[in-house]
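During data preparation, we tokenized the protein backbone, and the record follows.
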Amino acid sequence: MSGWVEHTFHRRAAKRIISAVSDVASRIEQHRDRLSPAERQVADIVLRDPEAVAFGTVARVAAQAGTSGASVVRLANRIGFHGFSGLQAAVQSAIGQQLRPAVERIRSEHGSDVVSRTLRAELGNVERTLSAIDAATFAKAVRLLADRRRRVLVVAGDAESGVGAMFATALSLVREGVAQAGGSDVAVARQLAGCGADTVVVAIDLRRYERWVVDHVTRAVAAGVTVVAVTDSLLSPLAAQAVVSFTVSAEGAGVFDSHVGTLALANALVTGTAARLRRSATDRLDAVEAAWHAAGALVEDRPAREPVSGDG
């Protein structure tokens, strides 16, 4: 196995494993705002490379995190474990639960073609992303998005801009006051100028996070904007500033990360918003449909031609 392939395999395995470490991840999220910079570095290793914690030592985890052994132990204690050994036992337990299903899946596979790998990866992304959503968190996000007194501005990183555009377009069909920020730093700053408590920013970006996205979101928060973050880690710089945060699974079947889980979450948010705005959303959709029809904008499906003599 080549070095790159081996690294990619272990990175994806880590994502699958940590998705099951709900107790550890929940504890990190609960204490996120109280973690020191060094503890955040250790927490990032716990979330991104749980095997290093499960099978490593305090010294090895500290070296990987670029911090001290004391910081590793402090992180474990802070999130409610009895030292590093308690944290390690929790991660080992989760990994043990995950390895057996993984082995069974490998043994049951009869093909390794790209389509089959993609199907498995994308089904997993959707399942992990949507099953991780807390009902109260989802309801809070929908309330914010359905509040027609607030405008909604979507800010998405370059790789996520397509999902951002889809989300902004779909949401604008069920309510007014929705746009996607884009262009140069000057253009984005202009679009965010004057935003305050009457604005919800939906920030979408995955690691490695783009500086312009983080910087503009930071300035928006300082101006009183409410942020809904869609990202890939509890320790994301976007999650740290958000009132509501969703963590998506982005495991790719090939070279690049997948955005299918992110798209599924976006669809769920639009569906939830439309349901909450049922009457006004229906009226708006009817108006849009009427405008499309009046403009002849769409090629309508035509009824099948009646067969005539000689038709087979």
